[in-house]
Structures are given as structure tokens and as C-alpha cells.
Amino acid sequence: MTSFALNAGREAPLIPDITIEQLDGEQKSLNQFAGENVTVVNLWASWCPPCQREMPAFEKSEQQYPEIRFVMLNQQESAETIEKFLAENQLTFDHVLIDKTGKVADAFGAYGLPVTLFFDQQGTLVESHMGEVSAASLSATLKQLSP
């Protein structure tokens, strides 16, 4: 897996305390997903072809690694658009959230899509990837991080 420099030269960032929205409109802080489990946060959008191509790998990985928490964090689309995309592509994820203003991408200096962020059990960023993730590279990274 290829990493890119997020906040280069700084201490590894933690999952931020940024309020985001669930598909049902309920507000949630992203850092509520930190702790206990390794957490994978994928920044994506339905209009992004590389995002579309990598979605099945994330869905399969979520099923294969129940001890890892996957957060599919859509960037600035409506709940209706997201739900339609997931239904049309027969995709199911436990945690699909919306970053309506791009605050999370800004917090990590990520200015393209897709971006995948891997956090350890303490909520510290330990790996990141910009661009499409292949099933093989995702699996290899998850095996390394899996407790």
C-alpha cells in the first residue's frame, strides 16, 4: 500500500473530534469510533470512479474483519444520493456517514478522493492511502493491523 504524507513533519494525528452526520440525520463525532478497535475511515463520493471501484473490496473486508471498524465517510453529498448509490450497487456497510463540509479531509490535508485512513486501537493514524485501494493491498494492510 502506498502512503502519502499527511501533515508531514508533525506527530501522528488522532481521529478528530469533528461532528459529522449519519444517513438518518443524527449527529455523531468521528472520534466516537476511536478506541478498542482498529478503525478504517474511507473518504469517498458516489461520482468518483476510483471510489466506486474500491467499494466492493471495503464491503468484503468489513465482512472478513469483524474486529475492525469501517467508517465510509461520504464527502459532501446528500443522504438521498448516498442511499441511492448504495442501493443501486447493492452495497451494505455498518457505518456510512456524511461530511457535508469536507472538515475531515481538511483536517488531514487530503484534497483528492478516495482517501483511506487507518487508525490503531488508540485512535492514532498509522497508515494512509490516497487513490484507489486494491483488494490485495487493503487485505495486506488489514492483516498487519488486525489484533
UniProtKB/TrEMBL annotation:
PROSITE patterns per record: THIOREDOXIN_1, THIOREDOXIN_2
Any one GO MF annotation of this record: antioxidant activity
Domain Thioredoxin: residue ranges: 9-147
Pfam families on file: AhpC-TSA
Keyword Mitochondrion attributed: no
Keyword Ligase (UniProt): no
Highest taxon listed in the record's lineage: Bacteria
InterPro entries: AhpC/TSA, Thioredoxin-like_sf, Thioredoxin_CS, Thioredoxin_domain, Thioredoxin_ResA/DsbE_sf
Keywords: Redox-active center
Gene3D superfamilies per the UniProt record, alphabetical: Glutaredoxin
PANTHER family for this protein: CHROMOSOME UNDETERMINED SCAFFOLD_47, WHOLE GENOME SHOTGUN SEQUENCE, THIOL:DISULFIDE INTERCHANGE PROTEIN DSBE
Protein name as catalogued: Thiol-disulfide oxidoreductase ResA
Species whose genome carries this gene: Methylophaga muralis
Gene: resA_1
